[in-house]
Every structure is written in structure tokens, then in C-alpha cells.
Design a protein that fits this description.
The complex is a heterodimer of chains A (about 950) and B (about 210). In chain A, about 30% of the residues lie in helices and about 20% in strands. Chain A starts with 7 loop residues before the first strand and ends with a helix. Chain A has a seven-stranded mixed sheet with strand order 7-6-18-17-16-8-9. A seven-stranded mixed sheet of chain A has the order 27-21-26-23-25-24-28. In chain A, strands 13-12-11-14 form a four-stranded parallel sheet. By secondary structure, chain A is α/β, with parallel strands linked by helices. The longest helix of chain A has 17 residues. The radius of gyration of chain A is 28 Å and the shape is globular. Among the domains of chain A are: about 280 residues, Alpha-Beta Plaits, CATH 3.30.70.20; about 160 residues, 3-Layer(aba) Sandwich (Dimethylsulfoxide Reductase, domain 2); about 130 residues, Beta Barrel (Barwin-like endoglucanases). In chain A, helix 6 runs parallel beside helix 17, helix 6 crosses helix 18 and helix 10 crosses helix 11. Among the domains of chain B are: about 25 residues; about 100 residues, no CATH class. Helices cover about 40% and strands about 0% of the residues of chain B. Chain B is built from nine helices and one strand. In chain B, helix 4 crosses helix 5. The radius of gyration of chain B is 25 Å and the shape is extended. The termini of chain B are far apart. Classes of the chains: A alpha/beta (about 950), B mainly alpha (about 210). Chains A and B meet through strand 2 and helix 30 of A and helix 4, helix 5, strand 1 and helix 6 of B.
Chain lengths: ~950, ~210
């Protein structure tokens, strides 16, 4: 394989070399960058404006105030950040965070190293959550019938209204999934007080089929807890456990830990994925099988039959597919060290089969165990509630932090149901679709503003502590419930604290509370494993279920990498981060395989109407190589009608297609062209470094046979330099190594960098012109057959070249080499010639074409990191290796009179990386981790032939294909 | 008929030359007088409380760090909360009308709006801790604050001025325990003391852009 030159491509246009792609590539600057657009009138306006500004500079500097505290805060030193342990909850599951606060403003989220779901790392959603805190479009006051009201008025109303509720016949609650022990206690209190009331926990992206499948098999609705570190072979059946079906970073870490290969003797796990769309997990698979969602059940059945788990037979006879036979043999070889898992979009039967296989392979207790579920949701309960409401049986509906009018299954018709309820109370962070129909809307406090608690997937409980007082007068769900129920405690702090003090009776509760708040983890609260015995009679029938007849077209509903289920729609950082696979920003699309698109005569950007079981939605088409034929996948969470300014009407809303009975996918869909076109914006062709061996990979076997294989791919050229070399005999010399084998392409680094370095949001139109500002771009390369390619990732930021081409062309010496090897960028010196960006072979420099920070409200400025300059128009910027963090630690070490320790400086991307693929450190120290990685045989640098000598090096990706299948696929 | 006289061409040339000189002259003059030596040095705004550094730091001999607690641990030296004033003024001069603003702040929780004097542009990251730990005295940048009734800026705080010291630190380095002794007079050549300290403690002031601009 190494002899055959692999061809990597980023888009179908690049693969076929269309004229449009050539034009994009050959332009010196992206479109619009070098043209003067505007009329004579705008020119005169601008001149007038600049003259008046020039006049202003002569004025005396403005008076600035210093406002100290009135009373000191113990331990507080002005200018030093303070870190608080807390949790962020998504889909009911908590992940531990450390919140960095500057002068009382939370500015950055890091993972909590003590927390089992985080272990020090954070996901893109967690990184971006701090921006939502300062969103000026958040709900700012209590609304009664859409008019401004107050909490006092609401309290008075509640006093009077709740007395009339009797036993709660018409009282209904809808909330998100709840793992918070204190809120669950409050819920039970409410249901005791109003015995005929009902409470529906509801998540639009539900995982209900998982416990349901386990109940089929083991007789109890349990929740699996996976240990990916222990698994040598993983089979994922439409389960995106590295991507959006996983809300905690720890799974990625455990998986990636088994992809680290330091020496040719090391072993690696092997990942098989069967899926309809192209997920992050599929992109990292060693073997991937494209299948329609409805076929996956059949594949699971055949795999089970192949394994002979019901005692029907042993291997090898009458199998329908050699792929499955090979996977089955691989699983058999790794009994007790393998794992089969099914995704939440698959029905309960597939989950039952997956866990049955795990049980038969002896994996239970080793790579998977079962506990009581941490969260429970009830999609059917929501439909039943809507039914009741339509029948006029509901008189008071309380919706806590959910948005069912937007995201409830279409057949529930929640909007119509809500209109029939006389009293509706909605608590939410924004005035959304549900708030618009509610009699009362109450502003909800952000998680960084409120006291609460929650559990991680393994049951570990943590306290959530506020890091800032509510900016817009919000309250928490627990406070609202306490008010409605007349609970003895009214403040969230008292509710949470009293719950836990009650749990710690007989111990020193005060100490335990302080410890719990400080650590962010309450030790010993994880759920105990439950022993299980499968009831084979109940699942026997599943094996012999007939395959479903092939349907026309199937639509798969996926969470969005930007908005999740729509809740982050108003978050500009997430909206602008390109989707890891499609590289679309500010949009979703109906993704099709190239073959299906060809068959229907569709092209990128054609708007189609999707009809499924009488429900319709319009979406633009995006052709995605590697997508399953005969299926369409759409990301949920777009097309919000009532939302803040950022997310309103961004993308297209697929929720109208989704029915309660099939939340994961729907069969029998039809696509119709509308004749309209829609402009989708993608970054996949931006900053192209065409046709050079940038991504390098090999298989584990090839690497074992020939460890210098990667290095040999470097072009053999004689290297010489015209410039004088720098002397690094003293002090530090920084360097970075990125392990492409661990990187799974999840975008967390991109968002962490954006939060740390005050990187602006530019908007869809600017991205179209190639002006996105992200300092790290995550290059996604396809390789192989356009119908069924493989994906390779490569995060590229400034390479900090030793002989940097940018430095030599700057006419004003705004970019310089530091004595520690960094390419410094002095913003105040930059005059914006952009020569450096033109001369950069890696295309990592970003130019502020416009003043992207202009017009920010005061509250939006609170998110800025005070240690990093906020750049203005006309200034070049790029990755600095987080020089502010380097300097901070250096000053600290100097004050303590010592050298820096290895691993003391963490760049923002390195700290957050769930796969721990990025290592930064001193390359003068031969024993530092980064030095050791630079000696790794997989180590190479980009464009070595240019002799730029980058300080960032890459470790080539290894794949671990099954030798049986590799020979099949090769033939 | 001639519209312009014979001399008009010459007049026009003279006019152009004068105009050019006027423009060049005003640019030169403007850039000269707008240097921080002239625009920044001497800035001494009226503060909301008539606090005298001369009285407290000079006559009473209080250490700078009693109030500016961050100077050894943080980028910012910090301005003290009203509570720090009240540590003494709860007993000393407790009814003075000059202290009304301080008492009011202490009771109401509202901060006293001190006017900033030493200000660097937003793209400069100055760190007090790094300088104080290296043995650069307060006096090097802030002057004899212990002799000022109203604090004023005495140094330009411009980049060229910063670099003077970063390129040649010896005259400005003293034993770190003496940084807040504004009146310290060494018994021998301060440059020699500085050189010895620099050699002994490995002091190496950075000159790269990212030391201050990041």
C-alpha cells in the first residue's frame, strides 16, 4: 500500500478538479479580499469618517477609573484568575468543569481533572457554553402574555393559583432529563403534594431505546457503562460514541488511549462501524460499512447468528456476508476484550442484540457493566400529555427549560396542545418558540449562575456552583418548583445544601459540603454495578425476525455538532465552527451519497422537499462522500423561528419530519426538487495545500514491518538556508507534537482556542469569502473511492517555523522570532500588508478584514480573556502557542526561583483535547514529552522540503485493519 | 491678454514651498510634542479622596505593600478596598470630613472611583510581579511617590523607555527585599550592585515582542 501513492482530497470538486475549485485555489486572495466594493458615496462617507477620527486623536486621553472592592475578599488578588469547580449538564448528564474567573467574570471552561466524565478535558459544547452566559439575547424579564412583568407579580399569581389545584388533576410538568438528586427530591415532593399531577422528563434527542433494549434482554431497564480502555475490538452499530451520541469527553479519552503507539510492539484497538451517515466515529473506523438505518437491525441479527450466540451453530456456515463473518471471528478471538454497542437511533431490539452479543462474548463485567439509569426520559409521555391537553384535561402546564413547541415530535402538535391549556408557565434561558405561546415566561439562570447538582453517566454526583450572580435576574428550575410547591426552602443554595446535609447525617456535614463544593466531585456516589442474567426466551424471537422490505428512502435525524438539538442555536462560536465532516458552517443540509444524488440529478445547494409519511420539510442538498445510498441524514436544531439574533432562521428545520414513534429515522421518504437553490457555505476547500504529502498514514502491520516508513515519505531534497540560525543553547525552546492517531476530529480544540484567544465570529457571508478567523483549522481529508472513502484528520495551526517565511517578508517587522523559537506577532505594529499570509505555505495566518468586534454590547465584552489583546481591523493574527500562558507560568517559575517543569504549560487546545492528542513543551529538554515524541518513528513535519523547520510536528496516523478484510477490500 | 502677471508663477512656487514646509514642520512639531514625555508625564488628576502618599508612605513610613497587595503575586499591584483604609481610620481621625467618602464606601459597598494615572495601551501586558521579583524598585517607574501629596506620572511609560531598561538593566536592579524602599541610597555604585545581582540571579529581561504584546 505504501508503494501506491494515496490521493487525499477535501471535496468532490477538488477530486474532479472542477473549474470553480481551480479558480478558488489560484486566486491570490479569497474573493472580495482585494477588490474595492462600494460606490463613490461609500468612499466619501468613509473619508469623512476617517477625517473626523483623525481629528479626535489630538484629544487628551479619556479618564479611566479604578474601582476596588469596598470590602476585601479573602484570598483574592486582583489580576489573578480564580478557578471554581462546577458541572455542566447536557441531556441530564453532568460533566465536571473548572471555571476560570477573572475579576468575577467567568471567561473560560476547562475540564475538571477529578471528575470521572471529564478527567481534565472538555468538549466543544462545554467550551462554547461560556459565550451563552453573556448572550445579550437571553431572556431578561418575567413576561405575562408577552408583556413585561416581574417575579413579585408571578409569586402573587402562584400563591393564588396553586391553591385551586386540589389534588393536581390538571397539573402537568415538562422538564429536560434530570439527574440532579435535589431536583428529583423536589419533584417527588410536588408529586406527593399533588398526587394526580404528572411530570414528564423529555429530551428531543432521546436515548430511550437503550434501556428499553436492555429491559428486553435482562428484564430491567438498566444503563450500560462502557470501559473503552479495556476493549481490543469495538463494533459500533450506528453508535457515534466518539461524536454526538456521547456528551462527556471521557469516552474519547479512553478510546484514544488505546490508539497510542509509542513503539512498533505496542498494540492498538480495532474499530468497526456500521452506519448510514458519516459520523466522527465512522471517520475513525478501521473498517466502515455504509448501511441504511433500517438495515442495521438485520446486520446485528446476522452478526449474532454468525457468532452463534443463541447456540444455533458455530462459525462459518451459510453467512450472508463475508465482512460479518470476519468481524465475528475477530470478536471471537477477543472474548472478554471486545465491545458491541448500538446507537440511540436504533430500536430497542438492536440494543437487545448488541448486549446479548456482549454477554455471550463474556464482555459483561469487563468492557461493559450495567447500573440503574442516571436519567430517564419519556418521549411517549410527552405525546400523551399533548393528547390530554388537546382534550382539555390539562389546566396548568409547567415547562422547565424545555422547548417542546420547537422540538417535540411533529405528530404531537405541541403548539396546538399548548393553546388549549389555560395556564402555561415556561422557564427558559431565552424567549423561544414555547415562551411565545406561554401565559407566563420566566427567565432561567444559566448554569454558571446557579446552584444545583447532577450526576455523571456512572452516577458520580457533583455540586454545581455559581461563578457570577444572575446577569438577567434568572432563577433555577429548583427555585421555580419550590415556589410552585410551597417547599420549605426557596433558594437554590438552600435546596441543594439541605439535600446533601440530609444525606450526610451523622457525619461532619459542614466539612463534607465544603469538600464537595471545592472538589467538584462527591466521592463514593457512583452507582454500583447490577448483576444481570439474560432471559433468552424473550430475545430468541429477535433473531428470526424477517428483514424489513427495502423502502424508497430513509431519513436519519442526527444531533447537530453546532446546536445539538437547537439549544445552542444562538451561540455564534458553535454556529461558525465547521461541522467536522461536512465542513458546513451556519447551516445544516440533507446529506446524500454521491450515487443517490446522481440518481436523482441533485447537486450541492439544490433545495428539495422531503416528504415522509405525509410530513414535509424543505432542505438544501449536500453531497457527502461515504454516505449510505438510499438514505438522507439531516442535523436537527436549525431553522429556529423564535430565537436570538444569531440563530434566528439559520438553516432549515427538520423537526416537522419527525414523529414520536420513529425519533431516530423514518422510512419511505420521498425527495422532490423545488427548483430553488440555496447557498451553503463550507470551509472544506479553504486554505488548501494542494497535492502535497501532508497527511501520512500507514497500517499497524506496515508500521511494524517497517518503522521508518513514515519518514521515508519525505521528499529527498538538499536543504540549505540563506538565513542565520538562532541560538537556543540557553533557556527554553518550545515545540508541539500532534498525534494524528489519537486525534478524532471533534472540534474541541477549535472552540477552546476561540475562547482563550478572543477570536471573533465573522458570520456566514464572511466565511463564504474565506475570512474565517479560527486559529486552528481541522483539515478533513477524504481518501479512496468517492462512494466509500476513508477520512483523515489534521489540525493545523501556526507551525512556528524555525526559518519562518512570514518573518522575512514583513515590511514593518511586526512578526518576529523570539529567543524561545516562537513566531511572535505584534498586533500594534502590524499595518496589514498581508505579505506574511501570502508567504505562509501552511495558510495559517488570519486577517481582520473588518472590525469584527465592533458594536459589541458591554455584556458581550465580559467573555474576553484579559490576558490577550482584542484585535481590530487591518491586523494579522495567528496561533501564538498561547504565549500568554507561557509567560504566566514563566513568571511564576521565576518568582519561585526554579525552571519550568515539563507539562506545566498547557496550551488551550492541549488542555481541552479529549483525546490528549496534543503535547506541548520544551524541546531543549531531551526528556520532555514533546522531545520524546519528536524522536518517535511516526514523527514528521509538514512540507519538509521547504526547510521551514516547523516546531509543530505530527505523528502519522495508523490504521489497524483486520488482515482478513484488508485482503478482501484490496481485491 | 495676460490673466496672470509675470511673477505669479514664482509666487506660486514660493507658495508651494511654504506650504510644504508648513506641513512638514507641523508634522514634525506634532510628533515631537505628542510624545509621551510631553503628553503623559505630569498627569495628576484630582482624586475622589484627597489621599496623600507623602503622609502615609513618606512621613508615616508605611510599606507600599500594605495597600498594594498584588504587586508580588500578580500582574496588577491593585488599589486597596475601603476596608484597608478603615483598618486604621476606624480609630484614627474617625470623624474627619476628608474621609467621608471612604466611610461611605465602606458602609454602602459602593467602590470609590479612583482615577487611573499610570495607564498602558490595551495591547501591552505589563506584569508587576515579574519586575518586583527581579528587584526593580517601585521608584524606577513611579518616582518618589513617598514625596507626592498628589500622585503624578513622572516617567513616559513609552516602549522606548521600557526598552532602555530591558536592554541595560544594571542601573535599575536592586536586592528584591529593598524594592519598596523608595529612599534607598546604596553605599557604592548602584550599577555595580546591579551587575552583581544580574549575574548571581540570572536576570535576563526579555526583548521579544511577546514579552509584552500578546
Amino acid at each position: 500500500m505504501s508503494e501506491k501513492a494515496k490521493r487525499y482530497w477535501r471535496s468532490l470538486d477538488e477530486l474532479t478538479g472542477t473549474p470553480a475549485f481551480r479558480r478558488w485555489l489560484e486566486r491570490e486572495f479569497p474573493e472580495g479580499a482585494s477588490e474595492w466594493v462600494g460606490s463613490r458615496r461609500t468612499l466619501l462617507k468613509l473619508m469623512a469618517a476617517s477625517f473626523s477620527l483623525a481629528g479626535l486623536t489630538a484629544c487628551r486621553r479619556p479618564e479611566e477609573k479604578i474601582l476596588p472592592f469596598s470590602k476585601g475578599v479573602e484570598g483574592y488578588v486582583p489580576g489573578q484568575p480564580v478557578y471554581y469547580a462546577s458541572i455542566m449538564t447536557l441531556g441530564g448528564l453532568a460533566t465536571g468543569v473548572l471555571v476560570e474567573c477573572h475579576e468575577g467574570r467567568p471567561t473560560k471552561i476547562e475540564g475538571n481533572p477529578e471528575h470521572p466524565a471529564s478527567r481534565g478535558t472538555a468538549t466543544a459544547f462545554m467550551q462554547a457554553s461560556v459565550l451563552s452566559l453573556y448572550d445579550p439575547d437571553r431572556s431578561r424579564s418575567v413576561l405575562r402574555e408577552g408583556r413585561r412583568s416581574s417575579w413579585e407579580e408571578f409569586e402573587a399569581f402562584v400563591q393564588q393559583h396553586m391553591r385551586q389545584l386540589g389534588k393536581g388533576e390538571g397539573l402537568r410538568f415538562v422538564s429536560g432529563a434530570i439527574s440532579s438528586p435535589s431536583l428529583l427530591t423536589l419533584r417527588n415532593y410536588v408529586l406527593d403534594r399533588y398526587p394526580r399531577a404528572r411530570w414528564v422528563p423529555y429530551e428531543p434527542i432521546s436515548r430511550e431505546s437503550e434501556p428499553a433494549g436492555i429491559e428486553l434482554l435482562f428484564g430491567r431497564p438498566l444503563q450500560p457503562v462502557y470501559r473503552f480502555e479495556q476493549a481490543d475490538v469495538i463494533v459500533a452499530l450506528d453508535a457515534d460514541f466518539l461524536g454526538l451520541d456521547n456528551l462527556a469527553p471521557v469516552w474519547i479519552r479512553e478510546y484514544a488511549a488505546r490508539r497510542r503507539v509509542a513503539t512498533p510492539q505496542d498494540s492498538m484497538n480495532r474499530l468497526y462501524v456500521v452506519e448510514p451517515g458519516f459520523s466522527l466515529t465512522g471517520a475513525n473506523a478501521d473498517h466502515r460499512w455504509r448501511a441504511r438505518p433500517s438495515e442495521i437491525g438485520q446486520i446485528a441479527r446476522e452478526l449474532a447468528r454468525e457468532l452463534g450466540v443463541n447456540g444455533l451453530k458455530v462459525l462459518g456456515s451459510g453467512s450472508s456476508h463475508p465482512w460479518l463473518a470476519a468481524v465475528a471471528r475477530d470478536l471471537q478471538r477477543h472474548r472478554g476484550r471486545s465491545l458491541v454497542l448500538a446507537g440511540p437511533r436504533q430500536p430497542a431490539a438492536v440494543h437487545a442484540l448488541a448486549h446479548w452479543i456482549n454477554h455471550a462474548l463474556g464482555n459483561v463485567g469487563r468492557t461493559v457493566h450495567y447500573t440503574e439509569p442516571v436519567v430517564r426520559t419519556d418521549l411517549a409521555g410527552l405525546a400523551a400529555l399533548a393528547e390530554e391537553a388537546r382534550a382539555g384535561q390539562v389546566n396548568t402546564l409547567v415547562i422547565l427549560g424545555a422547548n417542546p413547541v420547537y422540538n417535540a415530535p411533529a405528530d404531537a402538535d405541541f403548539a396546538a396542545a399548548m393553546k388549549r391549556v389555560p395556564v402555561t408557565i415556561h422557564l427558559g434561558e431565552e424567549v423561544d418558540e414555547t415562551a411565545a405561546l406561554a401565559a407566563w415566561h420566566l427567565p432561567e439562570a444559566h448554569y454558571l449562575e446557579s446552584w444545583s447538582d447532577g450526576r455523571a453517566l456512572d452516577g458520580t454526583a457533583s455540586i454545581q456552583q455559581p461563578t457570577i450572580a444572575p446577569l438577567f435576574g434568572g432563577r433555577t428550575a429548583s427555585e421555580v418548583v419550590a415556589l410552585l410547591a410551597g417547599y420549605e426552602h426557596r433558594r437554590a443554595y438552600d435546596i441543594v445544601r439541605n439535600y446533601w446535609l440530609g444525606q450526610w447525617k451523622g457525619r461532619d456535614g459542614e466539612r463534607a459540603w465544603e469538600r464537595a463544593v471545592h472538589d467538584g466531585v462527591i466521592a463514593g456516589t457512583e452507582f454500583a454495578p447490577v448483576s444481570v442474567t439474560p432471559d433468552l426466551r424473550r430475545v430468541q424471537g429477535l433473531l428470526n425476525e424477517p428483514a424489513p422490505p427495502p423502502a424508497d428512502l430513509e431519513v436519519v435525524f442526527l444531533p447537530s455538532s453546532a446546536t445539538y438539538d437547537g439549544r445552542f442555536a444562538n451561540n455564534g462560536w458553535l454556529q461558525e465552527a465547521p461541522d467536522p465532516i461536512t465542513k458546513l458552517t451556519w447551516d445544516n443540509a440533507a446529506c446524500l451519497s454521491p450515487a443517490t444524488a446522481r440518481q436523482m440529478g441533485l447537486e450541492n445547494g439544490d433545495v428539495v422537499e422531503i416528504e415522509a409519511q405525509g410530513r414535509r420539510a424543505q432542505m438544501p442538498v449536500w453531497i457527502l462522500p461515504g454516505h449510505a445510498d438510499g438514505a438522507v441524514s439531516v442535523a436537527l436544531g436549525y431553522g429556529r423561528k423564535r430565537c436570538g439574533r444569531v440563530g434566528r432562521n439559520v438553516g432549515h428545520d427538520p423537526y416537522p419530519l419527525r414523529a414520536g414513534a420513529q425519533p431516530g429515522f423514518v422510512r419511505g421518504a420521498v425527495l422532490r426538487r423545488t427548483g430553488r437553490r440555496y447557498r451553503l457555505v463550507t470551509t472544506q476547500e479553504h486554505h488548501s495545500m494542494e497535492g502535497r504529502p501532508l497527511v501520512r498514514e500507514a497500517t499497524l502491520e506496515e508500521f511494524r514491518a517497517q518503522p521508518d516508513l513514515i519518514r521515508k515519505q519525505s521528499p529527498k531534497t538538499e536543504l540549505f538556508s540563506l538565513f542565520k540560525e538562532h541560538d537556543y543553547s540557553q533557556g527554553y525552546q518550545w515545540g508541539m507534537a500532534i498525534d494524528l492517531n489519537a486525534c478524532i476530529g471533534c472540534n474541541a480544540c477549535v472552540l477552546a482556542c476561540q475562547a482563550e484567544n478572543n477570536i471573533p465570529i465573522v458570520g456566514k457571508d464572511q466565511v463564504r469569502r474565506g475570512r474565517e478567523m479560527h486559529w486552528i483549522r481541522l483539515d478533513r481529508y477524504f481518501e479512496g473511492d468517492p462512494e466509500d472513502p476513508q477520512i483523515a484528520w489534521q489540525p493545523v495551526a501556526c507551525q512556528h517555523c524555525e526559518l519562518a517565511p512570514c518573518e522575512t517578508v514583513c515590511p514593518v517587522a511586526a512578526t518576529n522570532h523570539s529567543p524561545e523559537g516562537l513566531n511572535d506577532m505584534a498586533y500594534n505594529r502590524c499595518i496589514g500588508t498581508r505579505y506574511c499570509a501570502n508567504n505562509c505555505p501552511y495558510k495559517v495566518r488570519r486577517f481582520n478584514f473588518l472590525d469584527y468586534h465592533r458594536g459589541l454590547q458591554e455584556v458581550q465584552k465580559m467573555v474576553f480573556n484579559p490576558d490577550v489583546t482584542v484585535r481590530m481591523r487591518g491586523v494579522m493574527e495567528k496561533c501564538t502557542y498561547c504565549v500568554q500562558r507561557i509567560e504566566e507560568k514563566k513568571i511564576q517559575a521565576k518568582a519561585e526561583g526554579r525552571r519550568l517543569r515539563d507539562g506545566e504549560i498547557l496550551t488551550a487546545c492541549q488542555q481541552t483535547c479529549p483525546a490528549q492528542a496534543i503535547v506541548f513543551g520544551d524541546i531543549n529538554d531531551p526528556e520532555s514529552r514533546v522531545s520524546r515524541l519528536r524522536r518517535d518513528p511516526r514523527n514528521y513535519s509538514l512540507l519538509e522540503e521547504l526547510n521551514t523547520r516547523p516546531r509543530t510536528v505530527y505523528l502519522a496516523r495508523l490504521r489497524n485493519p483486520n488482515p482478513e478484510l484488508a485482503s478482501q477490500e484490496g481485491s | 491678454m495676460q490673466v496672470f502677471s509675470r511673477q505669479s508663477d514664482r509666487y506660486f512656487r514660493i507658495f508651494l514651498a511654504v506650504l510644504l514646509m508648513a506641513v512638514l514642520g507641523s508634522v514634525t512639531l506634532f510628533s515631537f510634542v505628542s510624545r509621551p514625555q510631553f503628553t503623559e508625564v505630569g498627569y495628576s488628576p484630582v482624586q475622589p479622596v484627597a489621599y496623600s502618599h507623602k503622609l502615609h508612605a513618606g512621613n508615616l513610613g508605611m510599606d507600599c505593600r500594605y495597600c498594594h497587595i498584588g504587586v508580588e503575586q500578580s500582574a496588577h499591584a491593585g488599589v486597596p478596598p475601603a476596608e484597608v483604609c478603615m483598618n486604621c481610620h476606624a480609630r484614627v481621625k474617625k470623624d474627619s470630613p476628608l474621609l467621608a467618602r471612604v466611610r461611605e464606601s465602606y458602609e454602602s459597598g459602593q467602590p470609590i472611583p479612583w482615577v487611573r494615572i499610570h495607564r498602558l495601551p490595551d495591547y501591552v501586558q505589563f506584569n508587576h510581579q515579574a519586575h518586583v521579583v527581579a528587584g526593580v524598585s517601585c521608584v524606577s517607574c513611579h518616582g518618589r511617590v513617598d514625596q507626592m501629596v498628589e500622585v503624578r506620572q513622572v516617567e513616559p511609560l513609552s516602549m522606548a523607555w521600557c526598552l532602555d531598561c530591558h536592554r541595560n538593566p544594571a542601573p535599575y536592579v536592586r536586592p528584591p527585599e529593598l524594592v519598596t524602599r523608595l529612599d534607598w541610597q546604596p553605599d557604592r555604585d548602584p550599577v555595580e550592585i546591579g551587575r552583581e545581582l544580574i549575574a548571581a540571579r540570572g536576570i535576563n529581561p526579555p526583548l521579544q515582542c511577546s514579552a509584552c504584546h500578546r
